[in-house]
Design brief:
Layout lengths: L124 E2 L16 E2 L20 H15 L6 E5 L7 H4 L3 E4 L5 H11 L4 E7 H7 L1 H10 L4 E5 L23
Parallel strand pairs: 3-4, 3-5, 5-6
Antiparallel strand pairs: 1-2
Length: 285
């Protein structure tokens, strides 16, 4: 066998000897000048569809773009209000003054009692007859005598100053306590005119009816409730003009009613026209 190396075998280098490299000062040959090395092709961004939103760049967890988050200063706990400046104390009122309570409504005046007031001193008591209590709803026992004040209502009396209707009203209120035992059984019925305001001023039952027809209503009430004490309040124009026929029929039937006719001899409510009772030749408004 020959000692020559084969094409696939490399000759052994003696130990301690480095292989020869390129001469000093020389660089390995690179690509020609003016040419750039081929790199990886750049990827083009995908085309956006209309209305699509671009994703925001994400950073490290817990870090917001533009800088780290700043913590808010701790406030008062929920449900508590911060203390405000101390309020100045209000000066005390005069001695004996009642403190004002804001938000409360003023107290209403006491309601009118529904029962009859206590018997006044030295009042006369109407006794029960020997045959038993009076007919009606239950045994009422002894009743105190009524006074004028029991027939005065709370309505303001609206007649002209100096009118004689005031005197008639005062006289009726004074005499009724001697005529009736129970004001609940007393009814005043009127028509139209100055005198027909009378039922409003009496603390009893009453009707304010239409012009001239008070006798008709009173006749019907007396026929259906004969135990009632029925009064008719009318004037010279109401009873003797438009209500003349009703007035005459009440007299003809002789119904047990009381007619109180205010004869002013003039139409007072309509400011002074002559009435059926005006004197002959009287000059009116």
């Amino acid at each position: 066998m020959s000692d020559e190396p084969t094409p696939n075998e490399q000759p052994e280098q003696p130990k301690g000897v480095k292989p020869a490299g390129p001469p000093k000062g020389t660089q390995p040959a690179g690509p020609p000048k003016g040419t750039k090395p081929a790199g990886t092709p750049k990827a083009k961004p995908a085309a956006l569809t209309p209305g699509a939103r671009t994703a925001k760049p994400t950073g490290p967890q817990g870090v917001r773009a533009g800088g780290p988050r700043t913590s808010k200063p701790a406030g008062p706990p929920k449900g508590t209000k911060p203390a405000g400046p101390p309020t100045a104390a209000k000066p005390a009122g005069p001695p004996g003054a009642k403190p004002k309570v804001h938000g409360s409504k003023p107290a209403k005046p006491p309601a009118r009692p529904g029962t009859r007031p206590a018997k006044p001193p030295a009042a006369r008591v109407v006794g029960i007859p020997a045959e038993g209590p009076p007919s009606g709803d239950g045994d009422l026992g002894a009743l105190p005598v009524l006074s004028r004040q029991d027939f005065v209502s709370g309505s303001d009396v609206r007649w002209c100053p100096g009118c004689g209707d005031y005197a008639v009203l005062a006289a009726v209120q004074r005499v009724l306590p001697e005529l009736v035992e129970k004001k609940e059984d007393t009814v005043f019925i009127s028509g139209i005119g100055c005198s027909s305001r009378f039922p409003y001023y009496m603390d009893t039952y009453g009707f304010h009816t239409i012009h001239g027809r008070a006798p008709t209503v009173a006749t019907g009430l007396k026929a259906s409730r004969p135990a009632l004490d029925v009064w008719i309040i009318t004037g010279d124009g109401d009873a003797l003009s438009i209500g003349g026929n009703h007035f005459l029929h009440a007299l003809r039937r002789n119904v047990n009613i009381t007619i109180l006719l205010f004869n002013n001899q003039v139409y007072g409510l309509t400011k002074g026209q002559y009435s059926p009772t005006s004197p002959l030749g009287q000059v009116t408004g």
